[in-house]
Specification:
The protein is mostly helical. It has a single domain, classed as A middle domain of Talin 1 (Up-down Bundle), CATH 1.20.1420.30. The protein is about 75% helix and about 5% strand. It contains eleven helices and four strands. The protein has a two-stranded antiparallel ribbon with strand order 1-4. Strands 2-3 form a two-stranded antiparallel sheet.
Length: about 325
């Protein structure tokens, strides 16, 4: 039986180890990026955002197989809200400012977030069908193709990668595997802690699950900024949002159509997510940086979202 103290110590140690692992991943990504000619943004979008979103994917598959895919919808949208507000807000406060000076960080990089609104559009009739789920998955792969194509265009040398270029790939895959395991451990420890503290189920769903499943993104972002790789932090959040809203929800709908009863249940999360996305993109696009006070605003938005969800559950 885990005691409260042992749970807290285990979570702290797991977070520390996760920080070490993310540093290894960032270094491996940097080496691989230089070797094969793809940008940090493209590689992080393809690899890291997928790995950090695996907790959400696990919830989605499990809930869809059990015939409750609406749980996958709530978890994916809640994770996206946490990514744009909680993760980016905390990152900006800790780093004081997040700068986007790289040429790839023009406002057009945030246009892919438009794809994350399609699940809401599809669900306004009260459901997301299997066909619509396939469309969502297709949107995700279109985004990946665009990111890779944009990266190859910015590569001046444009040399085809050789076998030696992938020498850092085994190490990257190993550290990614460690990240996935640690993410699952942290989420499980967070759930045990919430049960130990006897927190309400709704509170656990909003705070423990959303914070627990987005903790890998937060630690990765803080490490990426410390190592002077802001493009990785941005790609991680954008890629995670796309993966959650399009691939995860698309796969959930293909396994089992997502039905909302009543259909109006989608309206409030849609408005909240649209407003948070709008505020985030506005802050970043106006001066190509996210300041600490703007991070504070994003955190307030997350707390507002949490309170609203608690009140209307």
């Amino acid at each position: 039986m885990w005691s409260l103290l042992s749970l807290l110590v285990a979570i702290i140690i797991s977070c520390f180890v996760l920080g070490v692992v993310t540093k290894k991943i960032i270094v491996s990504l940097d080496r691989l990026s230089r070797s094969i000619g793809l940008s940090h943004f493209a590689l992080t979008t393809m690899v890291v955002s997928l790995a950090t979103s695996l907790p959400e994917l696990t919830v989605a598959i499990s809930s869809s197989v059990k015939g409750i895919p609406s749980l996958a919808f709530g978890n994916a949208i809640g994770a996206n809200m946490a990514n744009l507000s909680l993760v980016m807000g905390t990152t900006a406060i800790v780093a004081h400012s997040i700068y986007f000076y790289h040429q790839n960080h023009s406002p057009k990089l945030f246009y892919p977030l438009v794809f994350t609104f399609f699940p809401f559009l599809f669900s306004f009739d009260g459901s997301i069908s299997r066909l619509e789920g396939l469309c969502l998955i297709a949107f995700y792969f279109i985004f990946l193709k665009t990111a890779i194509h944009s990266s190859s265009q910015t590569n001046q040398e444009n040399k085809p990668p050789s076998v030696r270029s992938f020498r850092s790939l085994p190490g990257l895959l190993f550290w990614m595997f460690c990240l996935v395991i640690l993410a699952q451990i942290i989420v499980r420890l967070a759930q045990l802690l919430s049960a130990r503290l006897d927190l309400p189920v709704a509170l656990v769903g909003i705070f423990v699950v959303s914070i627990g499943t987005t903790l890998p993104e937060l630690i990765f972002n803080l490490r990426a900024l410390k190592l002077n790789h802001p493009s990785m932090a941005t790609a991680n959040i954008i890629g995670s949002c796309l993966f959650n809203a399009n691939f995860i929800l698309g796969l959930s709908a293909v396994i089992h159509p997502i039905v909302f009863n009543p259909p109006s249940l989608v309206f409030l999360p849609a408005v909240e997510y649209f407003f948070a996305s709008l505020v985030f993109v506005y802050f970043v696009s106006t001066k190509r940086r996210l300041d600490a006070w703007e991070g504070g605003v994003l955190l307030v938005l997350f707390l507002y979202y949490a309170v609203i969800e608690l009140v209307f559950k």
